[in-house]
UniProtKB/TrEMBL annotation, chain A:
Keyword Cytoplasm in record: yes
Gene Ontology annotations for the cellular component aspect, listed alphabetically: centrosome; gamma-tubulin ring complex; interphase microtubule organizing center; spindle
Keyword Transferase attached: no
Protein's cellular compartments: Cytoplasm, Cytoskeleton, Microtubule organizing center
Family to which the UniProt record says this protein belongs: Belongs to the MOZART1 family.
Stated name of the protein: Mitotic-spindle organizing protein 1
Organism this protein belongs to: Acanthoscelides obtectus
TrEMBL record, chain B:
Keywords noted in UniProt: Cytoplasm, Cytoskeleton, Microtubule
Example of a GO biological process term: meiotic cell cycle
Designated name of the protein: Gamma-tubulin complex component
One Gene Ontology cellular component: gamma-tubulin complex
């Protein structure tokens, strides 16, 4: 129980850190998106590729929006 | 490919799908298209394996470089965040995440102008540019298009099956699954930030305050209690604290209070105390510096910037760290409180009491303190026992030195045991032995001038060298210490006795005193009385000491005293008390025996006792002597004046009275000389032979004198008896006077009668000379008259004498002393004097 809560706290803190880091580096990501991305990274996805993919998706979404 | 990997791949696929779903604002058509492209691109990357540390370092450096070009604050912030991330256990692939973020920012920063570069359209040159280090992956990227497609297809096939699952897993993930993912969900973020906003007072601030208070310095939250030693939580600042923080603070400031108390005790007593007090202060200071060391460590860890290792010092931890000091301080403060206003031995006694305490901690601390405190005492003790020296400027030792006027008083008055300074671990008897040992050394050195080697010192020296101060009180070692002490005491005492007995002829002096001052040497005393009588009958003013000295010498020459030691005879002298008018020589005469040197220690103070004893015995002797002379004279008279008929009744009276007196005096003299003197003497000799130290001899001698004093009725209780005795003696002297006068008168009468008879015979007138006859008759009448008055005087004095003797006997029979009651029985063995 204790371990769980402590790890939860730890996780929260870590996430906050990452959030701040992303803002610091000028990448304004949605917390949910960031969460998924970090989990992808954790799963061993190549980060550079992920960045590229992410960019592309964002662009595609933008294009679709404009079309609409 | 094993199972784990396939699951991983599935995970990634799901995550990508989710990502696309989120980004496309849940538009399934777009989402599907996006995910199709994304998966094509990404699915192969699960095989990425790089040296994570190198990569991480590389990435971190890149980020640092990037941020430092922007602003310093950002760089600092990054450092803090990075250190936090490092401490986190959630991120397993920190390097990858960081890399992701870095590249994300790179893209946004470097190419904000042309975002239209499409990787999905397989721009191999671009990926080749950026992904230089993962070119193999990029290559495989294109090569494995087929396999990716396959995966995607297979995923498509199972799509219907998955979509049902998808919502479920999503729910589960957001609810529980792992703690980490739950906490990362959006809902939690604001709540955590709210907590940090409310918690105004951080542990760091409080810790700093506590560390200050540990050193007696006021801080923001902790203020000094007005008028007190301790600290209190500041009322204003304290409002911001949570109850748990306040409770912790209050527990912690207890230590500050104890620290202040001890510090104040040290400061107050630093100067006025003696060496033993200083030892206590030094121990306390040691404890304080150990405490400061801990406080310094605490301070250092509290000051470490957050994020570093071991920096997580909290109030609770501080409480734990300081706990040992707190318990020690509690006891030390208690001990210090007990020692306040005490010094020397009394201080050690106070601390020794704690040694019996049930608490282990108290025992340990008090032992430590006691050890330190006993050190100076031990040094003093060793100096005293080894050299008889006292170096005690603060009057802490349990033996004190006083100045003495004469050398003879050294033994009695110079050294004393200070009762209140004797430590409780030294018994009074032991303290006395310690006193006697050192005293003996001083006695030998100063009085006997004996600088010879003292016996038993080696063992003592060895003991002092090998054992520490705890030998005084620790049960095991103290046995050895006390045993050595005992043996040293015995040997030193024996040495003193040996010296006194052999070199200073103690026993001979005792013998001489007995012989000459207590009339043991009968022939000498008898002869001296004989020779002195004419001289002492004179008024005191007409007697000169040199004539008496000459008489004394002649008495010595004639009697057995001449065989006495030359030295003894030299010491014997005539003593003259101051006299008033009407005193005869008998009242002021006395004999003295001069004793000096080491033996004077024993005899000096008893000389006045000897004098009074001599006075009493001398007086009895003189009375006895007078009675003997009277008896002799009576025999002469009865022969000489047998034809003076008128003399007979008077002589008869005197005869009877003299007989009574002789009986009385014989009995009392016998009692004095044999029952009292001889018995006490024998007892004393016994004691002296058994004596183990000088004190034993002194005690035996004093006992002897007191018992003799009591025996010859010189003590306080028998003052009345003694005054009766004196009046009885006076009666004897009175009667002697009467008898002397009678003798003189009878002699004159006798001569006159003889002359008258001769004249009458020669005249041949047959006694017809009227004139002569008349004169004769007149003379006879006067003689008769004189006889009559004398008879009357003797009669009355006989009556009063009887009364006084009866009173004396009455007192004797009521006496508490068995011997005196026996004397009474002996005096009136046939109930001649019927006592009431």
């Amino acid at each position: 129980m204790n371990e769980k809560t402590s790890s939860a706290k730890d996780a929260k803190e870590t996430f906050q850190c990452l959030m701040e880091l992303s803002t610091l580096l000028g990448a304004d990501l949605d917390p949910e998106v960031l969460s998924i991305c970090v989990r992808l990274c954790e799963a061993g996805v190549n980060p550079e590729l992920l960045v590229t993919v992410l960019k592309d998706i964002l662009k595609e979404v933008q294009v679709v929006r404009q079309e609409e | 490919m094993d199972v784990a990997d396939s699951i991983d791949t599935k995970n990634i696929t799901e995550l990508i799908l989710k990502l696309c779903d989120v980004l496309s604002k849940h538009n399934p058509a777009i989402s599907e298209r996006l995910s199709h492209n994304a998966l094509m691109c990404l699915s192969c990357t699960s095989t990425v394996t790089t040296n994570s540390l190198n990569q991480e370092e590389y990435i971190v450096n890149c980020i640092r470089h990037l941020l430092s070009s922007q602003s310093k604050d950002k760089l600092d912030r990054f450092e803090i965040l990075y250190s936090k991330l490092k401490g986190s256990t959630i991120l397993k692939k920190r390097d990858l995440t960081l890399c992701f973020l870095y590249h994300l920012s790179q893209r946004l920063g470097k190419h904000p102008g042309h975002p239209s570069e499409s990787v999905l359209h397989c721009s191999t040159k671009d990926s080749g540019q950026i992904l230089t280090r993962t070119s193999s992956i990029a290559l495989s990227n294109t090569q494995s298009q087929e396999s990716v497609k396959h995966i995607f297809d297979s995923r498509d096939k199972r799509k219907s099956h998955h979509s049902t699952l998808h919502s479920n897993t999503h729910k589960i993930t957001s609810q529980t699954t792992t703690a980490s993912s739950a906490s990362w969900s959006k809902a939690d973020i604001p709540s955590s930030s709210r907590i940090s906003c409310l918690n105004v007072v951080t542990e760091q601030e409080l810790l700093q305050d506590v560390v200050f208070s540990f050193q007696g310095i006021e801080g923001k939250f902790l203020r000094r209690e007005p008028g007190g030693l301790g600290f209190a939580v500041d009322a204003k600042a304290g409002k911001l604290l949570t109850p748990s923080q306040r409770a912790l603070l209050e527990r912690l400031i207890g230590i500050s209070f104890l620290h202040n108390e001890l510090k104040r005790f040290c400061e107050e007593n630093e100067k006025q105390r003696g060496t033993i007090g200083q030892a206590l202060i030094a121990t306390l200071t040691d404890e304080l510096s150990a405490y400061y060391k801990t406080v310094a460590i605490l301070q250092a860890s509290a000051n470490k910037p957050p994020g570093q290792e071991n920096s997580d010092m909290t109030l609770k931890k501080a409480l734990y760290v300081m706990h040992e000091h707190q318990t020690r301080f509690e006891w030390l403060a208690y001990i210090a409180e007990q020692c306040r206003d005490k010094k020397g031995g009394a201080l050690t006694t106070a601390i020794h009491g704690f040694l019996q305490h049930g608490s282990k901690c108290a025992q340990e601390i008090s032992e430590r303190v006691l050890k330190a405190v006993c050190k100076p005492l031990y040094v003093m003790l060793s100096r005293w026992l080894l050299d008889g020296e006292i170096n005690d400027p603060y009057n802490e030792f349990f033996i004190e030195v006083k100045t003495v006027s004469t050398a003879e008083r050294l033994w009695h008055d110079k050294y004393h045991v200070r009762q209140h300074m004797v430590p409780s671990f030294i018994k009074m008897s032991q303290a006395k032995k310690i006193l006697a040992t050192g005293k003996s050394i001083n006695f030998l050195r100063q009085i006997c001038k004996d600088s010879g080697h003292l016996p038993g010192r080696e063992s003592l020296q060895k003991l002092f060298k090998t054992t520490l101060a705890d030998g005084l009180f620790a049960p095991e070692q103290s046995i050895e210490f006390h045993a050595t002490l005992e043996s040293v005491y015995k040997e030193t005492s024996l040495r003193v006795l040996e010296l006194l007995k052999n070199k200073y002829r103690l026993l001979e002096h005792l013998q001489s005193l007995r012989r000459y001052l207590l009339l043991g040497q009968g022939d000498f005393i008898r002869h001296l009385l004989d020779l002195l009588t004419p001289e002492l009958n004179k008024p005191a003013g007409q007697i000169y000491i040199h004539t008496l000295t000459a008489i004394l010498e002649s008495a010595i020459r004639v009697t057995n005293a001449q065989y006495e030691d030359e030295d003894t005879l030299k010491r014997l002298a005539v003593f003259f008390m101051s006299h008033s008018s009407g005193d005869t020589g008998w009242d002021v005469f006395g004999l003295v025996y001069i004793v000096d040197g080491p033996v004077g220690t024993i005899f000096q103070q008893t000389l006045s006792t000897y004098q009074s004893l001599f006075g009493a015995l001398w007086r009895a002797k003189r009375t006895e002597f007078a009675l003997a002379n009277m008896r002799r004279q009576q025999i002469t008279m009865s022969k000489l004046f047998k034809n003076i008929e008128e003399l007979r009744p008077v002589m008869h009276l005197i005869h009877i009275l003299t007989s009574k007196m002789i009986h009385f005096l014989n009995q009392t003299q016998y009692y004095f000389l044999f029952e009292v003197l001889e018995c006490s003497w024998a007892e004393m000799q016994n004691q002296v032979n058994k004596a183990e130290c000088l004190d034993d001899i002194i005690t035996a001698h004093t006992c002897f004198l007191t018992s003799v004093q009591r025996g010859v009725l010189l003590d306080e209780d028998s003052r009345q008896l003694f005054s009766h005795l004196i009046s009885i003696y006076n009666f004897v002297m009175n009667l002697e006077g009467h008898q002397g006068a009678l003798y003189q008168a009878a002699l004159e009468e006798h001569e006159a009668r003889r002359a008258y008879a001769a004249h009458r015979d020669a005249a041949d007138d047959f006694g017809t000379d009227n004139h002569l006859q008349k004169v004769n008759l007149e003379r006879k009448a006067t003689f008769r008259q004189f006889l009559g008055t004398t008879k009357l005087k003797v009669k009355t004095s006989a009556q009063t004498y009887d009364e006084i003797v009866k009173k004396f006997l009455g007192l004797l029979s009521k006496s508490m002393n068995m011997n005196l009651r026996l004397l009474c029985v002996r005096l009136t063995f046939n109930n001649f004097y019927t006592t009431a």
